[in-house]
Design brief:
Belongs to the ABC transporter superfamily. Keywords: Amino-acid transport, ATP-binding, Nucleotide-binding, Transport. The protein is of the alpha/beta class. The chain has a single domain, classed as P-loop containing nucleotide triphosphate hydrolases (Rossmann fold, 3-Layer(aba) Sandwich), CATH 3.40.50. It has eight helices and ten strands. The chain has helices spanning about 45-50, 70-75, 95-100, 115, 135-145, 165-180, 190-195, 220-230; strands at about 5-15, 15-25, 30-35, 55-60, 65, 80-85, 150-155, 185, 200-205, 210-215. A six-stranded mixed beta sheet has the order 6-7-8-3-9-10, sandwiched between helices. Strands 2-1-4-5 form a four-stranded antiparallel beta sheet. β9 (about 200-205) and β10 (about 210-215) form a beta hairpin. α3 runs parallel beside α5. The longest helix has 17 residues, at about 165-180. The termini are far apart. Bound molecules: adenosine-5'-triphosphate.
Length: about 230
């Protein structure tokens, strides 16, 4: 996995609403970038624009491959993993079946097997995914993304609604993905996730990147506070 994710001048509009404008950043392999910002700042729209789930203009490149003209499914096949907000597992399929259908037809193997990364899923392999707890469904959603043998992984609010212990576990999994060499892009509401990951943080406000700092920067809480209020 040596592909960097490059986003240049990405703009996402919904009719007259400009959700993200001129957004540019790079996520290198083995690096984690976290998008923080208030509700409506444009975080999910940015991820959806990159993933091809919503129309956008600008450049999205993964390694040498231009993704901008590709459908969402082709972007996934090109190596862009996307863990959507809200977990999106197939509720009537078992955990094992959810993982099976996520495997790429190319036969490409991920650097870590999903169940090695998330051994807590092993005891639930024969359960319907819809019967798992919210936290377990989040783990399965991440495992599905890994099963797809991506180069880069985007996660949209992966800790949303999770108990503190599971927030910590999810943060640990994101750190492992980064350390395995994936380019990891995370949308978060929780400052402590970015701090604990010591990630590069992009603060979004009204669809624009207004700050770019490390998660450990002591000024980050104040910068974020100001961006939330303005
Ligand atoms: N499908 C849509 N149609 C019209 N406007 C939309 C749509 N989706 C998002 N928006 C608007 O685009 C802007 C950015 O929304 P977005 O969901 O990307 O922000 P966000 O930072 O992810 O917020 P949240 O944390 O609440 O998910 C907001 O003004 C929102 O109302």
């Amino acid at each position: 996995m040596e592909s960097e994710l490059v986003v240049q001048n990405l703009t996402v509009r919904y009719g007259a609403v400009v959700a993200a404008e001129g957004v540019s950043f790079t996520v290198k392999p083995g690096e984690c970038v976290v998008l923080l910002g208030a509700n409506g700042a444009g975080k999910t729209s940015t991820l959806h624009g990159i993933g091809g789930l919503t129309p956008s203009v600008g450049t999205v490149r993964l390694g040498d491959v231009e993704l901008g003209h590709l459908s969402a499914s082709r972007r996934a096949r090109a190596g862009l993993g996307h863990v959507l907000e809200g977990r999106h597992v197939f509720p009537d399929m078992t955990v094992a079946e959810n993982l099976d259908v996520a495997r790429p037809r190319s036969g490409a193997k991920p650097p870590v097997r999903p169940l090695e990364l998330l051994p807590e899923l092993k005891e639930h392999l024969n359960r319907a995914a819809g019967r798992l707890s919210g936290g377990q469904q989040q783990m399965l959603a991440i495992a599905r993304a890994v099963a797809g043998a991506p180069q880069a992984i985007m996660l949209d609010e992966p800790t949303n609604g999770l108990a503190p212990k599971l927030v910590a576990r999810t943060t640990e999994i994101i750190a492992t993905l980064r350390d395995l060499g994936y380019a990891v892009l995370v949308v978060e509401q929780r400052l402590e996730v970015a701090q604990n990951l010591a990630a590069d943080v992009l603060v979004l406000r009204h669809g624009h990147i207004v700050h770019e700092v490390n998660g450990t920067d002591p000024e980050l809480p104040d910068l974020l506070h100001a961006a939330y209020l303005s």
